[in-house]
Amino acid sequence: MEFNVLTVIIIITIIVSIKGFSDGELKGRLMYIPYDVKHYNNYIRVFGHILIHADYGHLAFNMFSLYFLGDIFLNAEAYTYVGITDSLTSVYGSVKGQAHFLILYVLGGLFATLIPYIRHYDNISYKSLGASGAVSAVIFAAILWNPTVDLNLLFIPIDIPAYVFGPLYLAFEFYQDKKGNTGIAHDAHIGGAIFGIVYVLIINIDKGKDFLDIFI
What is the value of pTM for the model shown? Predict the structure, then answer.
């Protein structure tokens, strides 16, 4: 069986999250708290938050999103699967491709903390958790890599081109972030999405050109 970094990420996240559901100390140690990062140099929180979730629903949503957008990015018209992991390994080989995916996911989680950090580093009551920012990085890397693929998602009952879904998703996140008081770190989703786009452009600038060609 070929090593699959995506599967390892999902398994580890599920194990740690389930452990955190009954272990408040573990969850408290890994939760993202910008105040602690700035004032106590507690840097484990910058990465640890992607391993824990609020509840089973939160965990399931993030892991299903990661799996379907990272591994089986559905092209509904052709009934083929074009996952970002397969896309990366097909271009860079198994080892380098999987390494790119790992970097994308982990650094996506890191960059997702930047906007919340700037906003809340002196706010002792701000806390967040979950892999949503890292997942957002994977989603937008997949969209930029395969922009014309039709998405068929559980919460959207119709096929929608990836290049349409991406801007709509970002517009929704910006709107929700501006509205506030949703209990969701929409700014983290935005930060992760931006990193996913930038990372693809860094490793393959032609993907950005191909995306722009859709509108020209």
Answer: 0.91
Q: For the chain, what are the domain ranges?
A: 5-213
What is d(CA 45, CA 78) in angstroms, rounded to the nearest whole number? 42
Contacts of 108 (CB under 8 A, 6+ apart): 133, 134, 135, 136, 137, 138, 192, 195, 196, 199
pLDDT at 215: 84
State the CATH architecture for 5-213. Up-down Bundle (1.20)
Choose among 2, 179, 168, 180: nearest CA to 85. 2
The answer on pLDDT for 74 being more than 50 is no
State residue 80's pLDDT score. Answer: 47
